[in-house]
Amino acid sequence: MELKEVVGRRRSIRFYLPHKPVERAKIQKMLHAAQRASCVGNVNNTSAVVIWRDEASAELLKRITPPLGYQQMQTAPVFILWYADTDAYEIERWTGHLLDLADQRRIGVDVEETKTQINDVLKPVFGSMWKDMAVSPLAFMDVGQAVAQATLVAYDEGLGTCCMSSPRLEQVANLLDLPDTAVPICLQSVGYPAESWEAGGQTRKAPFEQLFHEGRHGRPFLPDPEVEEQLRTEKLLQREAPLPDRDDELRYVVRALGLEGEFVHFDRS
């Protein structure tokens, strides 16, 4: 598929084929895509733990189940816990990554001059603020970019995914041997969809001109209808949910997977 079609076909999949395992190679491809994501100063703060359902303890599955993830947790064969590692911003490590970018000719022009600027100017400034930057919106955005790239590769490989809320650190840290520097961002279910790839249609979003502005807030970025028509041809824009047969599909999938009943899970322990 072309990139725009992958973006357009992406859905949050909540029903998976529990009997169809996900190939390890496809998970590796997702992780490689995450590894290639942009991150400030090349700090590489995105990390993840891959959890195979068949190998996970009942206690771990209980602790990672979010309130609105019941269907996913019952059927997905794989889960990925994505987290930010704040230690990646530690000043010596961060400076080392910047110096390496200079050696790679990725920042600056003159290598030695760039390294001098990093050591003499940037390092003293970052040294006093790296702990705050490690938990800043920019740091978490970088993890989000990594997860997004992994998500698109999953869809290109024929998989479905759904990002859910992150488990509480104190409940999963020991079960997964997470470092003290870990900040869980989200839990992602992965598997082969039991739903059709359309999954009821493309999710309706807020109006384009309500979300995006030009020049200043309050001046809408007005979309060009010809561009929107082009994006429909390229399959980034698709039929909106709900499709006419969605109710029938949901009833069928729920019965087939034996998921009648509980769809919201609250662990009050």
Average pLDDT score: 94
Query: Any idea what the CATH superfamily is called?
Result: NADH Oxidase
CATH topology: NADH Oxidase
Order of helices and strands: HHEHHEHHHHEHEHEEHH
Number of domains: 1
The CATH architecture assignment turns out to be 3-Layer(aba) Sandwich
Proportion of residues in β-strands: 5-15%
The percent of residues in helical segments reads 40-55%
Give a structural overview.
The structure is a single chain. With 269 residues, the protein is an alpha+beta fold. The chain has a single domain, classed as NADH Oxidase. Helices cover 44% and strands 14% of the residues. It has twelve helices and six strands. The chain has helices spanning 3-9, 24-35, 58-64, 70-75, 91-103, 111-127, 130-133, 137-156, 169-176, 208-211, 225-233, 246-257, and strands spanning 46-52, 78-85, 160-165, 182-191, 213-214, 216-220. A four-stranded antiparallel β-sheet has the order 1-2-4-3. Strands 5-6 form a two-stranded antiparallel sheet. A hairpin with a 1-residue loop joins strand 5 (213-214) and strand 6 (216-220). Helix 3 runs antiparallel to helix 9. The protein is globular, with a radius of gyration of 22 Å.
